[in-house]
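Sanity check

After download, print the first record. It should look like this:
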Amino acid sequence: MSDSIFSKIIRNEIPCHRVYEDELTLAFLDINPIAPGHTLVVPKEPVATIDELSDESAAAIGRVLPRISRAVMRVSGATAINILQNNGSLAYQAVPHVHFHVIPKTDAHGLGIVWNAEALDEEAGAELGRKLARLL
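Expected C-alpha cells:
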C-alpha cells in the first residue's frame, strides 16, 4: 500500500473522524473543510488517479457516494452539494490517492467555481467523439 496520508488513515496510523467504512471504501471528515460537513470518500485501493482504479473499487465508490451525499446534506442543512475529484497535480490533486470531496453548498459556505467553457467545434467534436468511442 502507498504511503500517502490517506493510506495511513486507512491503516489507522493517523486518526480521523470516520463517518463510513466498508471493505473497499472509507469516508471521513476533511481536516481543512470548505464547509461544515465536507467529507472525503476514498477507495482503500492505493492508486493515485481514477484511471488507475479497478472496476471493483470504482463501483464501490459509486455505491457509497449517493448515501454519503444524502447524509452530508441532511446533517449540514445544505440543499446542494459539490462532488469534486481531481487527478494529477496539474488538476490540483494534492494527495496522490484517489479521493472524492463531498462539499455542502449553502449561501455562506461551499465550493466556488470558475468554469472556463468554450464552444465545441462541430467537426472537432465529431472526431473526438469517434476516437473516444473506439477506445471504449
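If your output differs, re-run the checksum step. Summary of this record's structure: The radius of gyration is 17 Å.
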